[in-house]
């Protein structure tokens, strides 16, 4: 088993690379670390590579990179993968920050690039866009969620932070509550998330997106699972982008609980399976529309939708039922009350 330490970057393909470079630099606030004919590497202002854009015929997220402990022998890592039945390929010059990596596929077909040593991009002191701290997590839809859990747990060393019923899982490789999510549905990307500093950065992001005529698709909210404050919007390619802060932290694996916070539902808050009727958020607007299909919106590699879990439906239905009953009681009472003359 490997022990992944953090997510590196996500590779996205796009038919219009210049439009996406403009979005990720001017709106998201990443800097250009390197530019090639059909590829652009983007990093945070502090030098962490976050997104690699590649020219392609369709919108997709074909590769994802992860870092193991610095100084790890990639030959030994390849041997461990081989013993686990995984065939890997050694690749060089992945990005300016990653000189060498092992590439292999996960069960849903995403190529994983595992590296040990990383060179930070030069510091970028320009001020533009929202300027996140890091690439925080990525969520995928896939038919076999349990199979993905077994692969990421047994091969890569991830831990399960939480389940929503049996169709949506949150997995961590560090203190962060989740670095990857898997939601049952047709194979594809669900959303990409960037961490910002605090609530004031969320507010600033809301104002900045509005000023640039980009509408939120959801938020601001505080989630129940993971408890992060979040906002969502779609980028020009239709991929859902999340900005978040205040994500639950597992500071000590042996203690086994997330760092206590006033908004936690449990004392202490431990990894668990949340029921179907668990609200998606603690406060903030619920989604305006219910999804279609198996716990997620329809999905193809060409079209990305923000899939809102159908498990919110029972809670919303109960709320609507209570509201209807209240109105009905009020009408009955008005009929029984004699009018004053």
Summarize this structure briefly.
With about 350 residues, the protein is α+β, with helices and mostly antiparallel strands. It has 5 helices and 18 strands.
Write out key terms for the chains shown:
341 residues; alpha+beta; 2,3-Dihydroxybiphenyl 1,2-Dioxygenase, domain 1; ten-stranded mixed sheet; 5 helices; 18 strands; disordered C terminus
Tell me what the structure shows.
The chain is an alpha+beta fold and 341 residues long. It has a single domain (6-273), classed as 2,3-Dihydroxybiphenyl 1,2-Dioxygenase, domain 1, CATH 3.10.180. Helices cover 21% and strands 31% of the residues. The strands form 2 sheets. Strands 17-10-11-12-9-13-16-15-14-18 form a 10-stranded mixed sheet, covered by helices on one side. An 8-stranded mixed sheet has the order 2-3-4-1-5-8-7-6, covered by helices on one side. The longest helix has 25 residues, at 312-336. The radius of gyration is 22 Å and the shape is globular.
How many structural domains in the coordinates? 1
Average pLDDT figure: 88
Low-pLDDT stretches: 289-321, 337-341
Query: How helical, in percent, are the residues?
Result: 10-25%
Helix and strand layout, with pairings?
Elements: E1 6-14, H1 17-28, E2 31-35, E3 39-43, E4 49-55, E5 60-67, H2 74-83, E6 89-92, E7 100-105, E8 111-115, E9 134-142, H3 145-154, E10 159-164, E11 168-172, E12 180-184, E13 188-195, H4 199-211, E14 218-223, E15 229-234, E16 240-245, E17 272-274, E18 281-283, H5 312-336
Parallel strand pairs: 1-4, 5-8, 9-12, 10-17, 13-16
Antiparallel strand pairs: 1-5, 2-3, 3-4, 6-7, 7-8, 9-13, 10-11, 11-12, 14-15, 14-18, 15-16
């Amino acid at each position: 088993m490997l022990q992944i330490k953090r997510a590196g970057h996500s590779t996205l393909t796009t038919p219009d690379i210049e439009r996406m470079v403009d979005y990720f630099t001017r709106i998201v606030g990443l800097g250009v670390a390197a530019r090639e004919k059909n590829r652009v590497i983007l990093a945070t202002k502090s030098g962490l590579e976050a997104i690699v854009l590649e020219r392609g015929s369709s919108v997709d997220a074909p590769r994802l990179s992860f870092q193991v402990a610095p100084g790890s022998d990639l030959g030994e890592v390849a041997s461990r993968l081989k013993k686990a039945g995984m065939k890997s390929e050694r690749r060089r010059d992945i990005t300016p920050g990653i000189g060498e990596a092992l590439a292999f596929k996960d069960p849903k077909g995403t190529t994983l690039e595992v590296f040990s040593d990383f060179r930070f991009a030069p510091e970028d002191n320009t001020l533009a866009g929202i300027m996140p701290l890091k690439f925080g997590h990525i969520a995928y839809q896939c038919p076999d969620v349990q199979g993905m859990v077994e692969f990421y747990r047994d091969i890569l060393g991830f831990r399960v932070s939480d389940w929503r019923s049996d169709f949506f899982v949150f997995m961590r490789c560090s203190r962060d509550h989740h670095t990857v999510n898997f939601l049952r549905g047709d194979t594809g990307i669900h959303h990409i998330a960037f961490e910002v500093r605090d609530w004031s950065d969320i507010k600033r992001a809301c104002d900045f997106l509005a000023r640039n005529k980009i509408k939120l698709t959801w938020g601001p909210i505080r989630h129940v699972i993971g408890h992060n404050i979040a906002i969502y919007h779609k980028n020009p390619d239709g991929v859902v982008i999340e900005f978040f802060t205040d994500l639950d932290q597992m500071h000590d694996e042996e203690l086994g609980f997330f760092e206590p916070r006033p908004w936690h539902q449990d004392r202490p808050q431990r990894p668990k399976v949340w029921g179907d009727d668990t609200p998606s958020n603690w406060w903030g607007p619920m989604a305006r529309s219910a999804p279609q299909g198996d716990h997620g919106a329809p999905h193809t590699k060409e079209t990305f939708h923000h899939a809102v879990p159908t498990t919110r439906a029972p809670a919303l239905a109960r709320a609507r039922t209570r509201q209807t009953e209240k109105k009905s009681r009020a009408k009955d009472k008005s009929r029984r009350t004699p009018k004053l003359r």
